[in-house]
């Protein structure tokens, strides 16, 4: 009887864990497995055109880890008609997603999102990457 209860409790715990993990949207327009409803994105605005901000973000990801993918979201235009540029990379065994888009000709917005292989947020790494982008732009 005790063994049956232990097995049932173990299976219940696994079922709850599977239900807690789902799909989350990434700032690059895709989806990834992860724990929803936790903060995983740092957003910032810079008084610079979009191209230098994108180059700085690209350099930060390449210096800290591996650049996996970069792209352009054509269907995601804002009121200016500008497209969003995206970067995906691996830093410290975390997947890092970066989105860069011009909010107006002189202001650029960024969003840095990080996820571990288990789908959990690493908000500290996202803040560190965002700060490194700002420091690279200040040079």
The H/E string reads: HEEEHEEEEH
The SS-based structural class is alpha+beta
**In this structure, how is the largest beta sheet organized?**
5 strands, antiparallel
Which whole number gives the mean pLDDT?
85
Helical stretch count? 3
Task: Return the CATH architecture.
Answer: 2-Layer Sandwich
State which percent range the strand residues make up: 25-35%
Number of domains: 1
Please state the CA-atom Rg, rounded to the nearest Å. 19 Å
Spans of 5+ residues with little confidence (pLDDT < 50)?
A: none
Q: What coarse outline follows from CA principal-axis ratios?
A: elongated
E-strand count: 7
Question: What proportion of the residues is helical, as a percent range?
Answer: 25-40%
N- and C-termini, Cα separation: 69 Å
Q: What is the class in the CATH system? A: Alpha Beta
Stated plainly, the CATH topology is called TATA-Binding Protein
Main sheet: which strands, in order across? 3-7-6-5-4
Q: If you had to describe this structure to a student in words, what would you say it looks like?
A:
A hairpin with a 5-residue loop joins strand 6 (94-102) and strand 7. The longest helix has 19 residues, at 2-20. The model has no long low-confidence stretch (mean pLDDT 85). Strands 3-7-6-5-4 form a five-stranded antiparallel beta sheet, with helices on one face. Strands 1-2 form a two-stranded antiparallel sheet. It has one domain (2-138): 2-Layer Sandwich (TATA-Binding Protein), CATH 3.30.310. Helix 2 (50-64) packs across helix 3. The chain has three helices and seven strands; from the N terminus they run αβββαββββα. With 139 residues, it is an alpha+beta fold.
